[in-house]
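Write out the bound-state structure for fe (ii) ion.
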Amino acid sequence: MLSALTTRRGVTTGDIKYAGTLDYIHATLFGTEGQSEQTELNNFGFDAVRGATRTYTIKTAASLGKLLLLKVEKDPFFILPENQWYCSKIVVATPEGEAILFPCYRWITRGELVELRGGRAMKVFEEDHPLLTDHRKKELITKKDLYQWAITDEKIPHHIHYTDIAELPAEVQFSLSRLKEMGLIKGLTAVELLFKGMAGSTEQWASFENIKDIFCCQKTPMSEYVAEHWMEDDFFGYQFLNGTNPGQIKRCSELPPNFPVTEDMVKPFLQQGSSLKKEMEKGNIFLCDQKIMDKIPTREYGGTTLQTASGFCLFYMNPENKLMPIAIQLSQQPSAQNPIFLPSDSETDWLLAKIFVKSADTLEYQAVCHLMGTHFLAEVFAVAALRSFPVIHPLYKLLIPHFRYTLHINTLSRTSIFGPEGAFSTSTLGYEGMTELIRRGLSKMTYSSLCLPDNITARGLHLVANYYYRDDGLKLWDTISSFVRKVVEHYYPSDSDVVKDTELQDWINEIFTHGFLANKLAGFPTGFNTVEEVVKFITMLIFNVTAQHAALNNGQFDFLSWMPNGPLLTRKPPPTTKGQSSIQTILETFPNVGETVTSAAVTVVLSEKYSDVVLLGAYTDDLFQESALKQMIKEFQADLLSLTDTIAARNAKLELPYTYLSPTEIENSVTI
Ligand code: FE2
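---
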């Protein structure tokens, strides 16, 4: 005889703006022993209200057995227009006394088929029911259709095929509140600059002081400091350790043959009685080599072809632990027209040389380190995950919070920032040159360059003083790695579990093919054979889309809203002789007023903190059924909190606090 059973469900609507809906919502449960009727989730009053959890009862004639799937449908409420619903999760309390979590965390539109998997995370080889095996296969077929690879250029990482943010699936789009805030900031900045008569102005800057008018009311302690100290040598050096591009210099134990600095040239800038050779042996000499810019295409401007620096800057870590520039050559080929500039040259010659080094550095920073190294790779990791992992996969649950908003910001930036008409197209390189720079950057990128501990060792920077990016970054790497190890070892007790997870192998293979462009020489994994390899790769991934992006992205307004500190455009060529420059030469070299404010406005939008920010390790979505995972997340959060305190205590003693890698300043994904 069949008995009537009741299954109760707690349905939670997201606590985010516009999450609720008036539409009808229906649910159907599927179990090993049968399925329920399609049931309307309707209590008295409003049901799907922002932030609310409502409980509903479904009656079935008999036990459904083990619950497998939960189907959710949303249908129009009379003739009202589309009203999306953000469903957070559904917790099903079965007659057998189990509470099964069905995470959703996505917007649902009318007519969409949403089938949720509940319970503990499952790898493909653990599936033991034909319905679930079939569902898993179908889910991946649908996802591979929804998230396709597109190629803009054969030599840069592939990306999502959508070209317009409006086409993106709702689950990967910005929230409406983020869209509105970003639009407001853009609009206000544009209006402010228009009112000041700066937007579109072709006037040349009349003095350095006038540049301060751009953001007279919008400042940070650091942006003010930069505007005051940008010309000073020790602050120039400081930025190669703790500025927006902290990964460029290497310890130098031998000069490149095409950078013929002599002992006599630099002797006056070294400790008395010392020599370049001795300081190299002590590990105090560092080099920034801008070879990547050599003969790079540049754009036409006012009837001439622009030029960028592509040379070298030599640094000395002096006894006061200040990193000082001591020699600059502005292109790779030594010649009489390519002199080596020294701190003893005229003030404007030396300043101009430093401006060209910083300009080339800023171009490489934006195109290679920031855009390609964090944004584009994050997108590759995300698209590969969306295509390769079903939502019940443990690594999907671990990684999906680290991909929040990445497809949206990248789709947006491919037009508004990086595209042929975007903000970077007005740089010295233009769109073609920036694309070539990314191609070159990817071709020299290695797996170890993405792994901070290996990167620091390879560059010989493990001992250098006052390198806060390294100090905080390595602590974060260890904290992330320890968390990732617990999670990965929980789901993959042995190497054989790794080897037989075909979805995991598909994921890394997609990344190798579409992100690293099958470059076998650079050490990127093509597959995983051990638990250790998975731990390292996922640590690298989470570090790069959180900490590394924060270190590079969040100081843009601080360091670059003051244009002279890193102009993206230099209108005059690098100097070829000494003793010819003046302040006027520098002002003519800078972008004009309109060009300056366009770049500066971008730094405002990209450094803004938005109200729906999710910080590193917050994991606001309840994705794991397993209590062990909830505990691991708690421990990770406690470790991050303790690191925040350590960094704050260190910063309290510094004239210039380094805050970019404090966990409270790091977002959980690349969203801006
Ligand atoms: Fe960014």
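---
The radius of gyration is 28 Å.
The chain has 21 helices and 18 strands.
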